[in-house]
Amino acid sequence: MIKWITQNLGTAAWDQLGNRSGIEVVDVRNMVDKQGNRREDVLAVVEDAVEFLRQGKRVVVCCDYGMSRSNAVAAGALALHLKLSFGDAVREVIRATGEQEIKPEVLSVIEDAISQQIGPALFSAPEDRKCVLITGGSGFIGKRLIERLKKSRTMVAPSRSEADLTKGSAELSLLLKKHQVSQLVHLASPRIYNSNAAMGPMVVALKNVIDACRLQRVKILFVSSWEIYSGYRSQSLLANESIPANPKGQYGIAKWLCERMLEQEKLSYPDFDYGIVRFAPLFGVGSDKPRFIHRFIDLARRGDTIVTHRYLNSLPILDLTHIDDAVSALTLILGSSFSAVYNIGGGYGVSTTEVAEIITEHMGSRSRIIHQEIEEYAPNIVMDSTRARTVLGWQPEANLKLELQKIIAASTGKGANGE
User: Fold this and answer.
1) Residue 263 sits in a domain of what CATH number?
2) Do 90 and 159 have their domain in common?
3) Are residues 300 and 273 in the same domain?
4) With the C-alpha atoms ordered 6, 65, 95, 85, is the resulting torsion angle positive or negative?
5) CA 20 to 30 Å from 287, out of 188, 194, 200, 324?
6) Domain total for the chain?
7) Is residue 418 part of a domain?
C-alpha cells in the first residue's frame, strides 16, 4: 500500500508496492536504517526522487517496511523539490504517512547531504544553548520543576500530542533543535506504572529520547527510583550509589533496565552525556501517591479502623521525601556538571504505622490502628544522599508532620490548624 505525501510523492514497503504502472520507484533498501550511510550515496537517491518529481512523474520511495528509510528520503526530496526547511518536510511526511519511527540517524545524514540547497542543518546542534526540555511536564514532579525553573531558565514541556515518545524520536529531535535544548529531564512515565504492560512503553520512550538526544548532543537527566533496590530484605538498608541494584516488581525492573540502557549507550558513544537521580518515595499536596497516605486520611475522617501491614522482616519502612526537596535536588543537578548518579531521600525511614499515628493524632480521630500480617519481605530502603549533600550542597528541608498536615488540610478542606 502506497502512502501518498503529495499527489506525486509517496512511500511504501517494497513487498506492498503492488501495481507499478504509472509510477517511478526509488529503491532505498541498500541504505542501512542506522548510522553509517555515506553522504554521497544518500544524496544520489534523494536527487533521483527529485528529478522524477521535476519531470512531473509520480514517485514512490520504497524500503523494506515503508517506515524509516523511505520516509527519510522522501522528506529530503520534499524539502528540495518544494524549497521547504527540512524540519517542515519531516513534519509533513509524518503527518501524511503516520509513520513516526523514522530513525534520526538517517534523517541526520540526509539533511547533511542536502544542506547546501536548504540552508543550515536542522540536526546539527548549535553551540550556545540553554533551554531545558522536560518530558512529563504535566505530572507531579514536572509541574513543580517548571514552576521552580521558570524564573531562571528557558523551558519547553511538550505534550504527548507534540512528541509521543512511544512512537518514535523524529518529533522530539525537531523540538530539541527548534528550541535549542541543552538539557532534557526525562520524567514521562505511564500513569499506571506498576504493571507488565507499562514496562515496554517506559523502555521504548527512553530509547527514543536517547536516540534524539545523542544526535543533538543534549544531556539527559533520567529520573529513576529507589525501587531499583526493592529486592533487598533487611530491617533497614541505607542505599548509596555504589550498592548494586536489586529490583523487584515491574516498576523497579523497568527503571533498572532504563539505567542499563543509558550505561550501554555511553559505552557505545563516549560523547553521549547523561545523569541519573534516584528518588525515595515522593509525597506532597497535589499527588495521590503514596496511596496509603490518602487512604489513611479517609479512614481517619470516618473513624474507621486503619489497617497497616507487618511483613516477615519488620514493619514496612519508607524514606518519605517531600516534592519540594526533590525539585530542589533536580535544580541543583541541572546547574552542575551533571554526569553522575545521585540517590535522593530524606535519610530516615518512617513506618506506615507511624504515618497512621501522625494522621489520627492531628485529625483527632477515633480510628484504631491494627496490623495485618503479610507473608512477604518489605525492602525498607532509606536513600543515602551523602553524595548530593557533599557535591551539590543539597539538604532536605521539609518536616514530615507539617507536610502531612498540609495534605490532610487539602484533603478535608480545612486549614492546617484544623479550621
Assistant:
1) 3.40.50.720
2) no
3) yes
4) negative
5) 200
6) 2
7) no
pTM: 0.87
**Whether residue 103 is found in the same domain as residue 226:** no
**First-residue to last-residue Cα distance in the chain:** 67
Q: Are 259 and 245 in contact (CB under 8 A)?
A: yes
In a domain, 63, yes or no: yes
Residues constituting the chain: 419
Q: Does 70 share its domain with 169?
A: no
CA distances from residue 170 to 25, 86, 163 in whole angstroms, order as listed = 24, 12, 9
pLDDT in tens, 329-383: 999 999 987 789 999 999 899 999 999 999 999 999 999 999 999 999 999 999 9
Distance CA 224, CA 329 (A): 13
Cell of 24: 517511478
Residue 107 contacts by C-beta under 8 Å, 6 or more apart in sequence? 72, 75, 86, 90, 123, 170, 173
Clarify whether residues 163 and 98 are in a common domain.
no
Cell 541543583, located at residue: 332
Domain interval for residue 140 = 131-412
The amino acid at 60 = V
Q: What are 88's three cell numbers?
A: 517542515
CA-to-CA distance for 43 and 60, rounded, in angstroms? Answer: 17
Which tens digit of pLDDT belongs to each residue from 161-215? 999 999 999 999 999 989 999 999 999 998 888 899 999 999 999 999 999 999 9
Q: What are phi and psi of 414, to 5 degrees?
A: -110, 160
Residue 169 lies in a domain: yes
With a CB cutoff of 8 Å and minimum separation 6, the contacts of 234 are: 313, 379, 380
